Amino acid sequence: MNHFTSIHDVPNIEALIHKALSIKHASVFESPIVNPKSNIQNPKTLVLLFFNPSLRTRLSTEKAGLNLGMNVISMNADAGWKIEFEDGVVMDGDKAEHVREAAGVVSQYADVIGIRTFPTLTDRERDYAEVVLRQFQKHATVPVISLESATLHPLQSLTDAVTIEAHKKTARPKVVLTWAPHPRALPQAVANSFVEWMKARDVELVVTHPPGAELAPQFVDNVQIEYNQRKAFEGADFIYAKNWSSYTDYGRIISPKENWTVTAEKMALTNQARFMHCLPVRRNVVVEDAVLDDPSCLIFEQAKNREFAAQAVLEEILNKHT
Ligand code: SN0
User: Fold this and answer.
1) N or C: which end of the chain has fewer CB within 10 A?
2) 3-class SS at 110?
3) Domains of the chain and CATH, by start
4) In the prediction, which pLDDT does 53 show?
5) Which residues of 130-141 are buried (b: 16+ CB within 10 A; e: fewer)?
6) Mutation test of ligand 1: which of 118, 148, 186 has the most ligand atoms closer than 8 Å to its C-beta?
7) Residue 35: per-residue pLDDT
8) Are 170 and 202 a contacting pair, CB within 8 Å?
9) pLDDT for 29-56, tens place per residue?
């Protein structure tokens, strides 16, 4: 694998999911006798640049790098110089460094670069062009992985595919992505990516959201959309909740009249579905305490699987490039 910025970078999705599962299996059943780091003569360096906050992505990707004996350097990119991403501009404003130099310089220290960048939620064209991620990728001389970009979160979705694969009880489980309320305008990235990865899996995918919360057509073409949340929940094996702001009225907070919070009462309509969320989650806004605190809830399992997903991706990239 050359880069990991979306599902389209993955040559064999099935193999990558099973690689993450086998790393998970080994971490549970086989304790390594030697620290792999002690055997590594020329450790590779992973540099993670965060233009936005992170807890799980940062810790799981750092841990995955350490598991592989890599040197890991994380930087809150807003602590660096303000970066210009447009080409051909006269840089006489507040931006001190162009992405051409920034990406070129980071490439001098890194063997793999991770980038986290959220959307503006005001400029849809720019966000969906993935200007920050693509400019970094263009001007870096080493592989780039997305740690959540403006419109996609592939490491999360790989994790979610791994989690569903490990917990499905039937060959073709019913997987429901449900929109949920939120006080802030959030990206569509997790939902876009989840749909993209689930479309590539053998699952019955249903997306449920109120009118006005339609995702970008390139993601939901041929996807079953159900505006009645209760109806969507019927017979579901997995309920994946996520808020996103409007794509059509770009960045607007959607406030439906009905209550879209995931409750224990709604979960009772399902086929004893396992609840999933990428986190962070607003308790009693997105989902009730009772659902999150139920032992069947998969949120910690998802968080744990982030490590194995990141390790599988890094291994694939290192195998190709070292
Ligand atoms: C991000 C999102 O894309 O929705 C990260 C999810 C992995 N979530 C948030 O920004 C939540 C912020 C909040 O205020 O609850």
Assistant:
1) C
2) coil
3) 7-152+306-321 (3.40.50.1370), 156-302 (3.40.50.1370)
4) 95
5) bbbbbbbbebbe
6) 186
7) 53
8) no
9) 776 555 555 556 678 999 999 999 999 9
